[in-house]
Protein 1
Amino acid sequence: MSVLTVNLAENSYDILIGSGLLPALGQRCADVGLSSRVAVITNPTVNAIYGGIARSSLAEAGFAVTVIEIPDGEEYKSAATLSAVYDALIEAGLDRRSCIVALGGGVVGDLAGFAAATYLRGIPFVQVPTTLLAQVDSSVGGKTAIDHPRGKNLIGAFYQPRLVLIDVETLSTLPDREYRAGLAEVIKYGVAIDLPFFEFLELHAEDIIARDPGCLEVVIRRCCEIKAHVVELDEKESGLRAVLNFGHTLGHAFETVAGYRELVHGEAVALGMVLAARISAGLGHCSAADVERVTTLITRLGLRTVPPEAERVRLLDAVMTDKKSRNGSISFICNQGIGNFAVEQLLPEKMLTLSGLEV
Ligand SMILES: NC(=O)c1ccc[n+]([C@@H]2O[C@H](COP(=O)([O-])OP(=O)(O)OC[C@H]3O[C@@H](n4cnc5c(N)ncnc54)[C@H](O)[C@@H]3O)[C@@H](O)[C@H]2O)c1
Ligand SMILES: [Zn+2]
């Protein structure tokens, strides 16, 4: 098992990463000083596979456990679901000493985290992420949120968990498409921040596709280390943390234009990274060979690199709606070679032209 500490003064916490950690969840929660009541927030899909293990582990460690199910799907990361969760928390008698355990992917983690941040002005919570995306990205860093009909993640809070417990074995049941989507975020860390990690991914692409637990532990650990480090330097996203948006500007635009069903988030990010690499080459930040190398790794890890057809105006519109623009230009994260980044102020028109998109 690997233990990483996220150092945020009084909000510091550990991330535990290993195979077969879930059966020890209760003990691990007790180890960080939690006791009494716990509400496990999860969805029917995850509850059916892992709910029993989580529940009995917590009960054995002396917790009074309530399981709260929310429906499966991004559309339920909503105010209506949150309201139902508050009802269930009150019904179960959770008080300030109680805690919330988020068992599931990013949807469960974001909503349960926001519930924990706001219920009784904040009660402790523990993240038990079960998707690759949640394990390498959303469970670390303390961003919690629900969606609003006008946009994703518009209502939320920065609220750090007390503990993140990552059992890589839970990935064995993750649908292939979700797994590959999570890999996009993994690749992101390599391209924008860490060349040796990018090289590791190139070297172990087959093991990663095969979901080799040993290899996954190394991969997830490195991603969490990078994310934790970035968050330590910029907890509330005033600057550096923007690097984590590499590939996301055009990725989000395609996600919006193509619709959330045609492209899941990670698939859109993979496309966004290919285009970001081309833009970076166009601005002299990296070579054509770097673009090729990034594209090849994305392909080898099972993600598409050719965007769906989209109208130029709709893409521009999506980019402008998504990003705060400064004099019409937006902050764009480029890769500097592979393993470093640079920030450019770019006009969206120029961005599209440099991306080589035929739109
Ligand atoms: N807070 C942050 O910093 C942050 C960062 C990135 C993304 N996010 C958010 O994360 C969300 C996306 O998260 P996601 O990609 O994990 O999606 P998700 O939570 O919808 O999970 C994807 C699917 O996998 C299923 N699932 C989860 N674990 C499983 C397992 N072990 N076995 C089988 N099925 C399993 C889920 O039931 C769901 O159907 C978005 O709402 C996004 O906004 C937040
Ligand atoms: Zn992302």
Protein 2
Amino acid sequence: MIAHSFEYLVPTSLGDAVNLLQKHAGRAKILAGGHSLIPMMKLRLAAPEFLIDIGRIPELSYLKEDTGKIRIGALTTHYAVETSDIIQRRLSALADAAGLIGDVQVRNKGTIGGSIAHADPAADYPASLLAFDATIVTLGPKGERQLPASKFFVDMMTTALDQNEIVREIQVPVPSAKIGSAYLKMAQKASGFAICGVAAVVELGSRGALSNVAVGITGGSTPAFRATKTEAALKGQKPSANVVKAACDKAGDGIIALDDIHASADYRIDLARIYARRALEAAISRAS
Ligand SMILES: Cc1cc2nc3c(=O)[nH]c(=O)nc-3n(C[C@H](O)[C@H](O)[C@H](O)COP(=O)(O)OP(=O)(O)OC[C@H]3O[C@@H](n4cnc5c(N)ncnc54)[C@H](O)[C@@H]3O)c2cc1C
């Protein structure tokens, strides 16, 4: 199908983009990589009167380590996240997630800010952003806000972003050098989206016990969530195969799992348990 007609606006600074969004409040949409918005417009699920293309704002595209934080500009592509030396060394689960998104065309055009603003329930990033305790920095007419990932993702295609706000940056606290992390998923074969994807972050203490554990799960339920019972069952434990398996059996406890043409709710809960175990095993081997 062909999208509704719209006016195309190209700001060259972040301030101009925020002003345009406010000027056309409720009638405009930000265009980043276009890999979710353009299909939505062609299907007439979205019909903005104004498209504000932020693709020519260089100040939104960067990846750097700065005073205890790793800062990722909203316009950073999935490919840049996947191949970044800082992300591979410090936040390998996030590099894994970026490298598993769609195909190379999607990864070259799609952006981390666009992905999290879109909030597809099967998107890959939320699992890692939750597990790393990331903060989403937004900018709007009233200034900047800092939202923990756990508050940013609200529901299916719904975030805490106000309609006049832009995602500016994702911040992740620099983790200790002793952590290991990994992201694994069961992908929907045609698109690559996560039927269930799990990010695990672990820290091994001096006696080989897990001093910190975080497990984020996407695709299983909406919004993405932390498997807190699995985390609690593992903290302070030596991670033998039996201990990890028993903890992962709790990974889907208490969730209302998604149930659709791709997978039933029961199957998704099984996937959450299995992929939690596999992601934890991979994270532990990277921490050792
Ligand atoms: C074939 C295909 C396969 C895919 N497979 C996967 C997959 O396996 N895993 C996965 O996670 N994703 C997948 N995606 C989605 C892909 O990752 C998109 O790139 C991403 O969801 C949206 O990013 P974008 O930069 O393209 O955003 P756009 O499409 O430009 O925008 C998406 C939405 O976010 C808003 N937006 C964009 N940037 C900002 C910003 N900075 N501030 C505020 N609002 C903003 C837009 O207004 C729009 O509502 C796939 C997409 C396609 C087409």
Protein 3
Amino acid sequence: MHISQLAKGIAPSPTLAIDAKFKEMQASGIPVIGFGTGEPDFNTPANIITAAVNAMNSGATKYTPASGTVALKTAVCEKLKRDNNIEYSPAQIVVSNGAKHSLTNIFMAICDPGDEVIVPAPYWVSYPEMVKLAGGKTVLLPTTEADGFKFKPSELENYITPKTRAIILNSPSNPTGMLYNRAELEEIAKIAVKHGIYVISDEVYEKLVYEGEHISIASLGDEIRELTILVNGASKTYAMTGWRIGYTASNKALAAAMGNLQSHATSNPNSIAQAASVEAFAGDQSIIGTMMTEYRKRRDYMVEKINSIPGVSCIQPNGAFYVMMNVTELLGKTLYGKVINTAEELCEDILEKALVALVSSEGFGIDGYARLSYATSMENIIAGLDRIEKYVKGECK
Ligand SMILES: Cc1ncc(COP(=O)(O)O)c(C=O)c1O
């Protein structure tokens, strides 16, 4: 059976793989605890569900314009003005099937074969594979825990070549939870404008900020707004992961190109989910406060507990809902009669012996860490971290 080189060259998503394994174990009755998933454990708010039901009852069940309804694009523009202080017109918005689809459109629209995209590491697992799908080349810009997993804007220029098309900025970040401040963003903007490269600003975690402030780089001036491709969506902010609504805001030429691509690939995103998203972006925003109070409690507990367990540690993330647990002290050691050499081997052993699902950091472009999501109940967090402690102390069977 023939499979294309392109498809064969794409790695499966390690975060979805661990989630699938976790669900499989759960379904067969194994009492496993999952820290793998990047999905709010809250329900979609009732006002959004009602908007979807009303949309179905009033006949919003047909094709819409391929790049989204005028009503939703208008609601997105109003949101970007209200929350991010950026002026966009509906012609600059493309609504897609989740931010993941928006990102795929972006790389397809900006990369010619061999064009380079700078990706700071650790990165969200899908970026390099998406760049590859579009025929582009990922150039990694490594960061360290000692620097808070942030690159220094002054380093950025060393990675820019005549083939560079864009840099990805994901603040707050998956997997590290770090956040760039205004001064850093101003410096990054200056470099992007100087070299005429796009900034792909993935802001899907913008509302999940515990310390500091989320700033959209596009709000820092007209020149950088022209070069910014802002990506956001409904999934993380409104607990709407299954509804699949994301969007881009960009210059008009790029928006037209992405809309054109999408019109042939998928046509419009689901019409009912679009109507519901108008309510999400424009209606009652109280779910955000409710989720934030809960996430903050969980983060504080998780950070303190991890740092009390010998052999592992973490820095405090300021946003999103992930913690990067440093496991380097455990590597090369013999645990349960076996030498554990990599974070991946460690995570596999923890899943087997402690029944806790973590995502090892290799898929995020860095060695020696495991990512834990605290988008799960406090009860699971307490029990799961107790199991990790038992494992590390050699007390599992
Ligand atoms: C950094 C980042 N960007 C984009 C996405 C995609 O979100 P969605 O496609 O659900 O809108 C995710 C999801 O995990 C993410 O973590």
